[in-house]
């Protein structure tokens, strides 16, 4: 016997319900396809909005920001890159959903509709054929019933005629013939009915046991195919997400890595390097005793006020525009005002603060050195080519290279001239910084209140000679006037020297060799550095170095982190402390930044 599938057990009268169920199943999978379509559209829109977000928040590029990029800004740029990559992965998800899931659903729904239509048409054809056969059987049965009744009636009429003696023999014979005819017709109708009944039963059995179950089996396979396809497409939509999840995880790791790369200390140092001016803060305003008129006092007051006012303007943080205006008024730095570079600065960067100017000049010198090296290499190449052409004229004409060689030599001469010019400017800027940040320049006597043991450095010695050609180490007023007048004179020449300023640890000390205080030539306060001298100079306490310090200015000494030193003179408000230590070379004395040490003074 043929195995009957579960769907066949529903019953032959449920064919219409099965057809309705399969139609709802196909509608359902098409609705799932609509869900995938809308989800893909949302993914595309999400990716588009992410890319627009990245574009809107992309930092504007500038040459200054590229040179001094904060770690937070770099991290934010990396975050934007990762978000853009995330947008790309959402686009991949949308594309795979459309190509691998939605297209499959639409194709499956189309095939299911076609198969269902064929199955329903076949079922309808079988049903119509069965109904037609049943109709034929009904007609045959009615014909048999009619013939049977007429035959019975003809037999009854014959028996009545045969029993009636009043009828003639011919009438009786007529009734007998009619009876025989009716009986024959009844037998023929009976045979036709039996034949149609046999055909109908066979067709009905074929219909309900073979043909219609096959239709049901096809509908069952169709419905199971739809259900199985629904399962596979749901899994496939999840696989689309799984495929991009490693890349998405990598993007998220990149965002976390970008966040970890942010260093607040480095950003602070960038700000310090960017806005570090190198100007010294203004010195103390001297007391003017009006009861003792002194012609030099008025000059000192005027000179000090000029220097103080100038330093007061430069002591605060100023913008580039303010610096340009200030330079134009006071003429602190020399140079051609109309000779500007592409970034709005003067070619010699004289409109920048000292520290920023040195950085710009150093970068310019390095740039010119690279250009000179490149141009020199090009010139050497042309020389070699010319020599080869001269040795073998078959390879080329030397005159074709000579013009290029001349141009290269001219460019090289211009670059070297420009390099020499900027090297001189850089040397001048470094010399200005050397004078400005020397510890001895901060130890000049002011108001006659104090004098460092070794305050007569080389700069004061030179300024003293400029004034009167002599040194007056014991004359406090003469030293004070000399320092003040020297400050004003140098400010007019493009310098800004503050004799009472404080050089912070980040202020950019000069690049002179390490030396002891009072090492300037011609200093009358110079004393021998020996053990007897230090025995007489009782230490005030001890100090420990919190940070390493490289002595780059005159009178300062280097120290390493954690090193113990003796304090022989405390900070007098200028930001420097005089210390000494004993090494293999003997006693060493010099200045160190107060902010770099931790002092413990004796009671």
From TrEMBL:
Its main location: membrane. Residues 102-161, 358-432 form a coiled coil. Residues 538-602 form the SH3 domain. Residues 476-492 have a biased composition (Low complexity). One of its GO terms (biological process) is signal transduction. Residues 2-267 form the F-BAR domain. The keyword Chloroplast does not apply. The keyword DNA-binding does not apply. It is found in: Cell membrane; Cytoplasm. Residues 282-320, 432-527 are annotated as: Disordered. It holds the Pfam family SH3_1. It comes from the Eukaryota. Residues 462-475 have a biased composition (Basic and acidic residues). GO terms for cellular component: cytoplasm; plasma membrane. Residues 351-428 form the REM-1 domain. Residues 298-311, 432-449, 493-527 have a biased composition (Polar residues). Keywords: Cell membrane, Coiled coil, Cytoplasm, Endocytosis, Membrane, SH3 domain. Belongs to the FNBP1 family. This is SH3 domain-containing protein. It comes from Anopheles coluzzii (African malaria mosquito).
């Amino acid at each position: 016997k043929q195995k009957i599938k579960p769907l066949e057990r529903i019953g032959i009268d449920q064919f219409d319900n099965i057809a309705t169920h399969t139609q709802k199943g196909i509608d359902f999978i098409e609705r799932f396809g609509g869900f995938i379509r809308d989800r893909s559209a949302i993914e595309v829109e999400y990716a588009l909005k992410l890319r627009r977000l990245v574009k809107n928040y992309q930092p504007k590029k500038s040459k200054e920001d590229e040179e001094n990029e904060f770690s937070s800004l770099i991290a934010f740029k990396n975050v934007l890159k990762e978000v853009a990559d995330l947008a790309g992965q959402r686009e991949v998800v949308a594309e795979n959903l459309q190509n691998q899931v939605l297209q499959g659903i639409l194709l499956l729904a189309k095939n299911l509709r076609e198969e269902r239509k064929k199955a329903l048409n076949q079922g309808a054809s079988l049903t119509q054929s069965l109904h037609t056969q049943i109709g034929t059987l009904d007609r045959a049965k009615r014909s048999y019933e009619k013939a049977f009744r007429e035959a019975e009636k003809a037999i009854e009429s014959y028996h009545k005629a045969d029993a009636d003696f009043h009828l003639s023999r011919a009438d009786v014979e007529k009734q007998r013939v009619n009876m025989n005819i009716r009986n024959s017709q009844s037998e023929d109708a009976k045979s036709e009915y039996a034949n149609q009944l046999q055909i109908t039963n066979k067709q009905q059995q074929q219909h309900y046991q073979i043909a219609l179950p096959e239709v049901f089996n096809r509908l069952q396979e169709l419905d199971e195919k739809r259900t199985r396809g629904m399962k596979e497409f749901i899994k496939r939509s999840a696989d689309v997400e799984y495929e991009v999840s490693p890349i998405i995880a990598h993007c998220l790791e990149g965002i976390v890595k970008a966040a970890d790369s942010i260093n607040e200390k480095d950003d602070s140092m960038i700000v310090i390097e960017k806005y570090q001016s190198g100007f010294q803060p203004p010195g103390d305003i001297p007391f003017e005793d009006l009861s003792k008129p002194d012609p030099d006092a008025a000059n000192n007051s005027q000179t000090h006020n000029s220097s103080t006012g100038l330093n007061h303007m430069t002591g605060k943080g100023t913008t580039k525009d303010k610096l340009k205006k200030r330079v134009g008024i006071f003429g602190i730095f020399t140079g051609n005002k109309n000779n500007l570079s592409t970034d709005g600065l003067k070619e010699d960067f004289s409109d920048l603060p000292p520290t920023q100017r040195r950085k710009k000049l150093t970068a310019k010198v390095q740039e010119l050195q690279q250009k000179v090296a490149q141009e020199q290499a090009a010139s050497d190449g042309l020389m070699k080519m010319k020599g080869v052409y001269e040795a073998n004229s078959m390879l080329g004409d030397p005159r074709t290279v000579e013009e290029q060689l001349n141009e290269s030599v001219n460019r090289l001469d211009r670059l070297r001239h420009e390099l020499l010019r900027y090297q001189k400017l850089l040397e001048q800027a470094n010399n200005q910084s050397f004078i400005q940040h020397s510890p001895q320049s901060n130890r000049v006597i002011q108001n006659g209140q104090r004098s460092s043991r070794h305050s007569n450095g080389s700069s004061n010695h030179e300024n003293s000679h400029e004034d009167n050609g002599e040194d007056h180490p014991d004359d406090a007023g003469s030293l004070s006037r000399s320092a003040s007048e020297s400050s004003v004179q140098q400010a007019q020449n493009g310098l800004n020297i503050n004799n009472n300023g404080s050089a912070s640890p980040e202020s950019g000390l000069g690049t002179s060799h390490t030396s002891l205080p009072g090492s300037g030539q011609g200093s009358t306060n110079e004393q021998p550095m020996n053990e007897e001298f230090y025995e007489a100079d009782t230490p005030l306490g001890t100090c420990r170095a919190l940070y390493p310090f490289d002595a780059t200015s005159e009178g300062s000494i280097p120290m390493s982190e954690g090193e113990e030193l003796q304090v022989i003179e405390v900070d007098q408000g200028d930001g420097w402390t005089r210390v000494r230590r004993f090494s293999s070379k003997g006693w060493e004395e010099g200045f160190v930044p107060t902010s770099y040490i931790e002092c413990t003074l004796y009671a």
